[in-house]
Structures are given as C-alpha cells and as structure tokens.
Amino acid sequence: MCLYGPFASWSESLPPVQRLDAVNNFNFPLMKKVIVLSVACILFGVLVLSGQDVKITDSLKKALQQVELQRGNVVPDLSDSTRANIIYQLSFEYRSSNLDTSLSYAQQALSLSQTINYLKGIGNGYNGIGVVYWYRGQYERALEYFQLSLQIRQQTGDKKTIAGSYNNIGLIYHDQGNHPEALKNYFSSLKLYEEMNDKEGIAQEYSNIGTIYSDQHNPQEALKFANKAKDIRIALNDKWGLTESYSNIGLINFELGNYIGAMTNYNEALKLRIEIGDKEGIAISYNNFGDVYKKEGNYKKALESYLKALDIDREMGLRKSMADVYLSIGVLFEEQNNLQEAVRYETMALAVAQDVGALDYMKKAYGKLALAHAKMKDYKEAYRYKVLHEAASDSLFNTEKNKTLLKLQLQYDYDKKQLSDSLRFAQEKELAEVRLQRQRAYTIGGIAGIGLTALLLFVVYRNYSRQREANRILKETQQQLIKSEKMAAFGVMASRVAHEIQNPLNFVNNFSELSQEQVREIITKSTESQCQDTAKALLESLQKINHHGKRAGNIVRQLQELSRTGKAQKFFEEGS
Questions:
Q1: How crowded is residue 495: how many other Cβ atoms within 10 Å of its Cβ?
Q2: Considering 180, 208, 224, which residue would you say is the last residue of a domain?
Q3: Number of structural domains, the chain?
C-alpha cells in the first residue's frame, strides 16, 4: 500500500518523476513558467543523475532559495505557490528520518497556502500533516487531516487528488481494522481513477483491495486483485509499482505457508528494486527474507537478512523501519529462547519508536517486552509493559470496550500467575513441615515407646487437619480461578460473536448504499449502454449483499449448532 503522491507509505517509495508532480502541474503564463520549469529542471536533473543514493533535501532547499531570489521579478502568487510546493516536497523527504521536521514543513506549506488562498496547496498541507500523524500511529488525528484535505480537494474539482484523499482515508481505516470502511474509500478512489482511465491509480487500488482480503484470510480474492494490479503494471512497465505487487503476492503466499512461493515473489521484488535503485525497498526485501527464514527455522540466515535491512535503514535514516527490524530480531532471539538478546533488541525498537513518536510501534514493542519478561519470570516488569501496551492500544484505537476487556484480562493473568506461585510455595512448605514432623514423631515413638503413642497420634491428627484446611483453601481458590476464567472467556466470546456477525452486516450495509447510488445512476443515465453498464454493477452489488447476508446467516446457524453440542469455541478456533 502507498499514500497518494508525493507521499508514499514507509514501506514503499515513489519514483523521482512522480515526486516532481507538485512542482510541474501548473498552468501559468509563459514568462512565469520559465521560473517554475527552471526549478523543476534543477530538481529533476539532480534526482535522475543521483538516483536514490543521494539525499534530495539539499537540492530542494537550493531550489527554494532560487525561487526566493526570483520573487521580486514575478507575480507574488506564482513564487509563493511554487515555494509552497517545494516546502511540501521537503516534508515528504523527511517523513522517514525526522517526523518533527516533516510536520514542520507540512505546517509551513499549509500556512503559506492559506495566506495566498492557494487551494491546491491547502489540500496538500492538510495531507502532509495527516501523513505524519499516520506514520506516528495517531490514526484519529491523521483521519481528521485527511478528511480536511478531501474537503479542500473536492472544491478544486481535481479528480486525481480527490482519489488520493479517498485512498489515504482508506489506509487509516485499514490500519484500524475497519475493513468495510476501508473498502468503501478504496472503491471511491478506484471509481475516480477509472473515470480518468488512470491505470497507475487503478492498479494501486486493486493492490490495496487485495490486502484487505488478505487480512480477512481470503487468499483467493486477495490473489485475484493482487494479480490484476500486477498485470496492469506489467503492461505499463511500472517497475516501481511491480515491486509492491510482487511483495504483496509474496506476503499472501507467506500467510498461506507457501514459503517457496513467498521467496520467489520477494526475489522478483528485490531484483526490480536493485535495478531502479530503490534502497528503501531493498531493505524491505531483506526484512521479508528474514521473516521467511525465521518461519523455516533457519535462524542464522534470518539474522543475516535482518541485519542487512538494518544497515540500509541506518544509512538512509529510516528510523521507523529500524524499529520494525529491531522488533523482528527481538522475536527471532525470543524463539531461540535467548531472552536477554530479545529484550535488548526489543528495547532498542522501543527507544527508536519513542524518539520518532511512532505509537503503533511503541505498542508492538511494549507487547513483545511484556511477553519476554514473563518468560524470564520477571512478572513485575512484564506487568509494567502490559500496562503500557494497554495504554498505547487505547491511544491508537480509543475503544473503551477494548480497554476494559484488556485491563480485566491483564489483571486476571497477573493475579492468576501470582496466586499459582504462592499456592505452590505454600503447598511445598506445608508438605516439608509434615514430613519433618512425622519423622520427629517416629523418632520420639521409637525412643519413648508406647507411652508416647498418644502424642504421636495427636501430632498426626493436627497435621492431617492442617492438610485438610490447606486443601480446602486450595479448592476454593481453584473454583474462584475457574469462575474468573469462565467470565473472561464469556466476555471474549461475546466480543468475537459481535465481530464475526458485524463484519458481513457492514458489507451488506455498504453495498446496499452503493446499490442505491447505482439505481439513481440508472435513472439518470442518458444512453442504454450506460444503463446496462450500471445495471451490471448493480447486479454485482446485489450478489455481494446476498453473499454476505447468507454469510451472516451461516455464522448464526453454525453458532447455534455448536452451542447445542457445547463446541462453540471450535467455531472461533477454526476461523482464527
């Protein structure tokens, strides 16, 4: 997945020519164009000659200085709008290395554009700010700015940027796990790209839609859309786009456990990335290789691949990507039961994530550290990181229900472990005392003879009473734990039932709304051909409504049947 240009997601980059769109797409009088095009030529020359190996920020700053020098010779709006575009581009260049600087440039581009009432620049500024919040994992704020950007872009009537905003909003919902809303926005973007016959945009949305189906464990649909995107990109000779397609297809194979297929596609992506000089993408490929080797149990090759990715990320200053690789290495050591090294790398991941303000990676690091400390029986630290993980999750998704369930589960797991350890210690201590006292009783009995038999019996009876009392306490405690487990399981199951049923219902609702729009289109269409095309689309929407309605009904029937036989849990285990 990638964000609309000139921004791209942290895992994919856009080619240099696309990065110049913000400067080149203007219609000014000839004299004014000379200055704009001279700036564009400087940038394009540097980008093409240096490829991806040289930082672009210096050339952008020089271009900005040249525009500043020319301001006295042109209409102020021209130079100011050009400045806004270059500043916006600078924001892009810092998105992986310094999010604070990236945010500062995006805010400057927005402020300047608002001052001169430059609508396209205002939309770009809101978009740039949204990207920074998205990179930081602050999804609600990112969504707010992407929606503001969409509103401004709709005023300009520029279909390409409007489609880009729909795409970005879809990415936020996708990351939040709200697949119906993500699909709704992806399809809105796709419709605009199809109206413009923008093949690159169409391929991008096919790719994004494919990842939704992959997340929903529907590999057939995922591969269908991923291959559609790949076919378009092959026809366009879009090598940058193909790197994403091969990566996505590799990931689908990886999720299916087809590691040979995954490596084949990952290698195709790597070849293209080397050919076009996409260093950031090369690092992603090595990271992907490491994941496959780890699954195959080849820990040595996995570590080598992760370290190659880390070296490139360090060289390019891609700090969020560094956090991702540190986490992967931490998990690798954890699987080898090298918990000290696991904690070391996971702590480095946390430090980098905190430094760049990437809340999503902070959440992942907290979760991994909690698990590692629990395995080390350092329950105090495990509990502390669990609490931090919970807080990060709340900040990301802002869901009170999830917050309550997680807190209850956290407290239950911790209390259960502590109680289990305490009971085991008490039992061992009690049994040791019993053995010691019995031995003393036997010794005294052997020495004192029959006269001390009564004392021996008393001691035995007292110990028996103590043991019985200890057993009673243990039984009551176990019953309380069982009750707590049932309550926790009931809460989780209720949440899962709601999720399983809500998902197809969301599809029914969304495609119902889409069907209404299609009916209205049929009414207003002027030609029979247009009506037939829209009718076909309407039929597909109705088929999807029928499919997801049946899916919801099937879920309910399965739950009813399994509940009657006491095997409801089996439904979720098979679906997970």
A1: 13
A2: 180
A3: 2
Q: Per the domain annotation, does 481 fall within a domain?
A: yes
Q: What tens digit of pLDDT does each residue of 222-231 get?
A: 999 999 999 9
Residue pair 239/258 in contact (Cβ under 8 Å)? The answer is no
Whether residue 485 lies inside any domain: the answer is yes
- Residue 462 within any structural domain of the chain: yes
Which tokens in the block code for residue 32? 């004014």
Out of 152, 180, 208, a domain closes at 180
Query: Could you give the CA distance from residue 154 to residue 170 in angstroms, rounded to a whole number?
Result: 17
Distance CA 138, CA 14 (A): 23
Helix axes of 219-236 and 239-255: crossing angle, nearest 10 degrees = 160
Q: Which of 19, 26, 3, 16 is CA-nearest to residue 127?
A: 3
Query: Quick check: 386 and 408 in contact, CB under 8 A?
Result: no
pLDDT tens-digit profile of 95-147?
766 778 889 999 999 999 999 999 999 999 999 999 988 887 788 899 999 99
Domain residues for 452?
404-575
**pLDDT tens, residue by residue, 169-193:** 999 998 877 888 999 999 999 999 9
| Euclidean distance between CA atoms 239 and 236, whole angstroms | 9
The CATH code of the domain that includes 163 is 1.25.40.10
- What stretches of 94-198 show up as alpha helix (H) in DSSP? 99-115, 119-135, 139-156, 159-175, 179-196
In the block, which residue shows the tokens 């301001």? Answer: 71
* 86 in a structural domain: yes
- pLDDT digit string (tens) for 369-381? 999 999 899 988 9
